[in-house]
Inverse folding.
């Protein structure tokens, strides 16, 4: 047994907070690439295919919207943590690989750290799941 075992209401609240937190992070970063590509490139470096940057931005915003809706509903379903962790893990791997290859600026490692933090929080949330009957 874990020393801390939240009740169902606390567990749902944590789910909602995690969903909302990642939704805000994804929506802000995704919209930044779409709305102000110039400032985005000042921080992240010049891009060859602006359409591709904006496409990724749109997809990140879409994931953020789903996570935001999940946070509002606060009804844990397995698809949401899968989407949250899967998207964060994918972005982390891309950040690390392409910084190592010197294709993108090291500033992307800050995003990788944030994404790994989200993964760790979702993993902790999953471990804290209340047992039936408690």
């Amino acid at each position: 047994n874990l020393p801390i075992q939240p009740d169902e209401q606390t567990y749902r609240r944590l789910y909602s907070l995690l969903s909302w937190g990642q939704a805000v992070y994804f929506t802000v970063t995704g919209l930044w690439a779409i709305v102000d590509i110039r400032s985005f490139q000042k921080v992240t470096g010049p891009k060859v295919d602006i359409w591709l940057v904006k496409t990724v931005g749109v997809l990140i915003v879409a994931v953020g919207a789903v996570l935001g809706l999940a946070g509002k509903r606060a009804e844990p379903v397995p698809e949401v943590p899968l989407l949250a962790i899967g998207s964060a893990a994918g972005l982390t791997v891309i950040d690390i690989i392409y910084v190592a290859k010197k294709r993108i600026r090291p500033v992307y490692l800050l995003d990788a750290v944030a994404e790994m933090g989200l993964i760790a929080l979702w993993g902790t949330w999953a471990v804290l799941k209340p047992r039936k009957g408690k």
